[in-house]
């Protein structure tokens, strides 16, 4: 018996009426379902040549798995996995199995959400507050993000981090390295603590995370421990050049562990330091003149631009001029390397960009974050970011200093021995 009611349900205060998001989620469900179907059809087409003795296809569709909910950046999306059956039984009992790259067997969240969790941690949000923090985006009581699930995830990440810490570096070579100390927004156990991060570029042009640890930014000892740890795990060949902020104790530690590595100061940090020493009204003009230095076509032009800068501003802004000229050689070291790499070597941007949303700028959050937890979350954040780091430009990745070739203003110059016959 059907009952009719004149009662109209009212929207609850904590509910969000967003037709646009509902449309997006509906479209996402359709697109995901189509993508899963197309992936299965492509797999079957590739296996079309496999036949049974009676001529029938060996691999056929076998319905769908149960519908499951995947947490995405626009909320929960329902999808069912396509099942494919292998109708042949080999002598060793092996069957061909179809595994979806789009929808892994046990996936409950998109990878972008997993990458978001460390960011929330590092911004000071506790495990129990994740669901509330993401309610507007993912929906109320979003599944797969409960405190128990997040705690299980952190346990898995801890095991992953321990395996990563033990990896062998003896087969690795890093021609360039970038170093930076990052203070997090989440309050650390000690206010002087920060994350020391070291990234390297291989001769093939790929950027990788070498190591990181909790330390004191100005401490030579902390950087020394990080560099020695990498060397102990097999990193024997010194990098050609290191890029970092001028205020770091990193440089002294680098000279102790890898004395042959050249120094390159980060131009982003240097510009900020110089501009902080002059009035706001002058900063725009001075910033333009500084660009003439680090964007010069060769080192000689950069040297001239520094002299022009010193003459133009020396009388009134001597502290700004001194800030630039005292590190003259370290600011222009990148000119001794391939020109394709200058954009990479002028700045510590690979590290800066990773922590742009979680590093401490003005005030810290009220929460407390242990060094162990912070290290784990930084590890996951860096792992996710490493997949997006730009490769070195150009084909000439390795400076051939030891192979009879050197670089002048980014151009290869063949070194001919003095006793070489004309």
TrEMBL record:
Put simply, this protein is called Mutator family transposase
Q: Which organism is it from?
A: Bradyrhizobium ottawaense
Its biological function?
Answer: Required for the transposition of the insertion element.
What is the top-level taxon of the source organism? Bacteria
- A Pfam family in this protein? Transposase_mut
Of which family is this protein a member?
A: Belongs to the transposase mutator family.
Keyword list, A-Z = DNA recombination, DNA-binding, Transposable element, Transposition
> Known InterPro entries for this protein?
Transposase_mutator (IPR001207)
